[in-house]
Amino acid sequence: MAPSFEDGNSVFEFVVRRGNGVKGLVDSGLSKVPEAYVQPPKERIDKENTVKHGLPPIDLSKLDGFSPDHDEVVDQIVKAAETLGFFQVVNHGVPLHLLESLKDTAHYFFSLPPQRKAVYRSDVSPSPLVKYGTSFMPEKEKALEWKDYILMQYTNDDEALQHWPQEIKGVLLEYLRSSIGMVKKLLQVLLGNFGIKPDDPMIDVLIGKKMLSMNFYPACPNPDLTVGVGRHSDMGTLTVLLQDGIGGLYVKMEQDIDYGKKGDWIEIPPTPNALVINVGDMLQILSNGKYKSAEHRVRTTSTSSRVSIPIFTMPRETTKIVPLPQVVEKDGTALYREFVLIDYMKNFFGNAHEGKKSLDFAQINPT
User: Fold this and answer.
1) CATH at 51
2) How many CA atoms lie within 13 A of 7 on its CB side?
3) 106, exposed or middle or buried, with CB in 10 Å at 0-12, 13-18, 19+?
4) Is residue 188 part of a domain?
5) Domain extent at residue 54
6) How far apart are CA 67 and CA 88, in angstroms?
């Protein structure tokens, strides 16, 4: 007989404190979602009332300066950042065999015995560079997210090889190495739109810190009652995301565009061989609101477990962030104040997900 988890405290103890994760709940023979995971009706994802993102992925091979389509691709990237804040890319330079290996490796890692993963819980992890956990901020959430994860901070190759879990460090380092050139190209395009030169040292500053995560969303007996990840925007500069073929990523429209209207939720369907790119809060702030760090969330499914593997790029903690002066001069006013990134991070990681509320920390006149 499957154990009962009717009491929220018993769920918290089993899943969080013991490090069993959501996968441990499912493996125990769970037949219905415990109350601790049941989201308020307004937070649930109604997949029948969402819009499919119909735009084709952007072909980054055409960013080559000799391509006749170069300027068109630049316009596509800028428009996507200004409107939805999300877009998909192909011919991105990340080996396709690596994408498949990443997904297989994620499934393998989360299939390991609980005690192997639990050694990386934040309260016992042998390294501050590695954290295994569940949900986002379990202690502060009204309802838990149906997700387990392993999060790694990148400082340098030597420390990653020393401290990251043996089972995943090789493939994750290759993923990071092969992606970072693409991120630089995208930033060169997006900042070039404001007159910043491709060799400006600011580009390296904006991606001085990297974090990688492997996320695991176990099959859920009641997906309509839960979320894999609640509504939020990403904190950093740009995020690179590998989805598997199952899907479940939804983005909120901030304004009316060709295929949806403000307030709609748009599904970003899995596209073979593509990576998802999204704008983070830092890029929205630097652009004085021109680029959108779109609010997004993840749905669960009852059919099979899902994985995703993001790379989060951001400035280092001591970096001062402020809207670009040339953009503020053109706009006539700054929408965001100057701050040091570490203060933004403390606020972001100190609260449960709540849409784009994290940006209130920096807004001069928050709405």
Assistant:
1) 2.60.120.330
2) 5
3) buried
4) yes
5) 16-23+37-361
6) 20
Given the structure tokens 């918290």, which residue do they identify?
Answer: 12
Cα gap 256→182, rounded to integer Å: 29
Which of 232, 235, 228, 294 lies closest to 263, judged by CA?
Answer: 294
Is 366 inside a domain boundary? Answer: no
Ranges assigned E (strand) in the chain: 51-52, 58-59, 86-90, 130-134, 148-154, 209-217, 229-232, 238-243, 249-252, 265-267, 275-279, 296-298, 306-314, 320-321, 339-340
Is there a contact between 191 and 203 (Cβ–Cβ < 8 Å)?
A: yes
3 state DSSP class of 306: strand
The answer to the question of residue 1 being in a domain is no
Distance of CA 308 to the CA centre of its chain: 9
pLDDT tens track for 284-336? 999 999 999 989 999 999 889 999 999 999 999 999 999 999 999 999 999 99
Structure tokens at 37: 């995971």
The dihedral of CA 247, 351, 365, 42: what is its sign? positive
Query: Beta partners for 237?
Result: none
Q: Does residue 7 fall inside a structural domain?
A: no
What residues form DSSP beta bridges with 249? 298
| Alpha-carbon dihedral 303, 309, 314, 316, rounded to 10 degrees | 120
Whole-number Å distance between alpha carbons of 293 and 237: 9
pTM, entire model: 0.94
300 Cβ contact list (under 8 Å, min separation 6): 146, 217, 219, 220, 223, 226, 227, 228, 248, 306
Coil/strand/helix, residue 296: strand
For residue range 78-106, list pLDDT tens digits in order.
999 999 999 999 999 999 999 999 999 99
- Tallying the residues shown for the chain, one arrives at 367
pLDDT tens digits for range 203-258: 999 999 999 999 999 999 999 999 999 999 999 999 999 999 998 999 998 887 77
